[in-house]
Amino acid sequence: MSSTLTRRARIARKPATRKPTGYVVWQGASPYDGAPIVAIVTLKTSNRKTGQMAQLWILRADIAPTAAIRAGEDSSICGPCPLRGDGTGKARACYVVVAQAPTNVFKAFRAGRYPVATPEFVANLLRGRKIRLGAYGDPAMLPIDVVKALIATVKGWTGYSHQWPTISPEWAHIVMASADTVADRRAARALGYRSFYVVPANTDIAAIPHAVECMATRTRNPLQCAECLACSGTRGRAAVAVDIVIAAHGTGARYVHA
Ligand code: SF4
């Protein structure tokens, strides 16, 4: 009896070994402004629009995401994206609620809860799964080889970049060009990109040529990104030939104008 109790006590004292929920896959200087940034893959994030997909987060490594926005230092991870607002956190049209998931991921990173791993190691964990490139931050802030390694084993991905005018056209195989105007769409197409075109709410999306409405927001038979995967540049297995259009949504929608 006493030896059973001793064994139980030993088991109770043993620290629980929890599997990491994410990994740091890259850290370095932002190609935009040289500030320290970090790329983290979380394995099991889900939301209503995307469904179950691993997520790639690109964050400032030294400042909390909300503070970075207030100081205008989120450009290190978002570049010149116009959805950032006025550089002080006002007039933000970005749909990401930065005080929630990005802040939680940043806190876990600073608390050392994400081990450092190579993209190839994480790609092994992602084999046959799906990943969203840029749950927050622009994936093109990372070396393209990091992103290529992460998607080498997956069943599908989605990705978006506002940096398409200035980055290597090789990114067109992987990400959608985030487009805010008709002229953006045209210019992105000339560079070989498909566009993810955000239009003001109440736009007649059906009247926009060579484009289809985002499958997650269409009223008939909506799909989650994890099922759809149409936003995977020109080389994704589920990529379609046309651009994707979405009506501005979320709290920032009022800042999106034609
Ligand atoms: S078109 Fe498909 S992959 Fe792209 S955002 Fe909409 S649901 Fe997601």
What does this structure look like?
The protein has helices at 2-13, 65-70, 75-78, 101-110, 119-125, 144-151, 182-190, 225-228; strands spanning 22-29, 36-47, 51-60, 130-136, 156-161, 176-179, 195-199, 211-213, 243-247. It is globular. It has a 9-stranded mixed β-sheet with strand order 1-2-3-4-5-6-7-9-8. 23% of the residues lie in helices and 23% in strands. By secondary structure, the chain is α/β, with parallel strands linked by helices. It binds iron/sulfur cluster (SF4). Iron/sulfur cluster binds at residues 158, 214-216, 223, 225, 228-231, 244.
Widest sheet: strand order?
1-2-3-4-5-6-7-9-8
* Ligand inventory: iron/sulfur cluster
**Alpha plus pi helix count:** 8
What's the β-strand tally? Answer: 9
Distance between the termini: 77 Å
Low-confidence parts, pLDDT < 50 over ≥5 residues? 1-5
The string of secondary-structure elements, in order, is HEEEHHHHEHEEHEEHE
Q: Taking Cα atoms only, what radius of gyration do you get, to the nearest Å?
A: 20 Å
**Fraction of residues in β-strands:** 15-25%
What form results from the Cα inertia axes? Answer: globular
Structural class estimated from helices and strands = alpha/beta
Largest sheet: 9 strands, mixed
Averaged pLDDT: 90
